Please model this.
Amino acid sequence: MGQLDGKTALVTGGTSGIGLATAQRLVAEGAYVFITGRDRTRVDEAAASIDAHGIQSDISKPEELDALAAEIADHGKGLDVLFANAGGGDFATLAEVTPQHYRDNFDRNVAGTVFTVQKALPLLNEGASVILAGSTSASEADVAFGLYAASKAAIRSLGRTWAAELVDRKIRVNTIIPGPIDTPGLAGLAPDDQRQALHAELAGVTLMKRLGKPDEIAAAIVFLASDQSSFMTGASLVVDGGQIKL
Model:
């Protein structure tokens, strides 16, 4: 018996890294899982690898979110778990920021999350769990990562507001706050010749002196998705190897 037997879940940005690891864990716990991604080939390959239902969808495009919601509605089971994971960011100092860089960060991380959850509202079953993707960057002062950090601070704030708005439907909303995790997205932040140095620097800011693994974040998300976290809503769950020193 899995913790999520008979449940239906959606993981956006589910073709690699934390999203894929989470989708795989949700399937293992008995859930029927939808995953999304922008590239059809990668979506199909990822879905086949974990026995999930893949849907090509770009969260920054409202018409594609409409199509995503319609396909999930056609399944007829609603949603019990929503992990709004899709997003991303890159480096730019204040002097280097352009309007396009601003839009890239906020359209993906903020608007994409807002409208993913909004489109899912009619599908969310009573007692559903919504999990938003935050970041320790929202609490740090990482040079040249200001817009990404600000977008993730917005996500954490939205999670608290939505928890209050949806509590009457017994829907819980929490935010997962990963530290530096060894994913393709993290690797893509630096050129090949600088990647090892970046990983070493990020590992060095944690008490554990290592990068986290996607499976370690997936385990925490399963906790938030299941009844094991039934008295948690509006919370931020930090899984960062001791990076944030409160």
Q: What stands out?
A: The two ends are 38 Å apart (CA to CA). The chain has a mean pLDDT of 94. The beta strands are 8-11, 32-37, 53-56, 79-84, 124-133, 172-178, 236-239.
